[in-house]
């Protein structure tokens, strides 16, 4: 009912070109095919990340969608992630590896207050429960990390500057660390964009120290 009313009040448009589509979050075929590609990024950062997968190219409609969600407070545009996550959902049907826990990269409290949300949460969380329904005992959503406020914005930084900027940027949530819930478990670390890998590398190191047996990464988009 709520989704129907939202679509009635705000007729759905393709996130790429703006033309009318049937439902909120849907893309026209041309715009979707222009950016969609499930692929593994080679050259994993650091020694604690096994694999990095991304679902689209950080370009055209996807670039504008993520910019609107992160910087223009257009939370509703996060629905445009749905087709990419549906494709990933079907791709995992043949996987031999599935995560016990999915853990979002957090934002600092300052950014959360400014935006009103963590963009990674709203992009991924609505769909993870569907994954869990298919594979019982897997895909548990877990907030396990906190982001230190002292880091600089990442845009415009070189690869080396990004590595230095993210050093010590994440801390374990104390209650999660004390619970030892990640001991021997497989983790899928979620982020919106993959650039140099500095962010996920630093977060993965903290998760490994919390006992995670393996850490893989999934991002909605990447410029690589």
UniProtKB/TrEMBL annotation:
Annotated family: Belongs to the ComF/GntX family.
On the tree of life, the source organism's domain of life is Bacteria
Domain named Phosphoribosyltransferase: which ranges? 159-222
- Origin species, per record, is Veillonella magna
- Kindly provide the name given to this protein in its UniProt entry: ComF family protein
Residue intervals of the Double zinc ribbon domain: 6-40
Which residue ranges does UniProt annotate as crossing the membrane? Answer: none
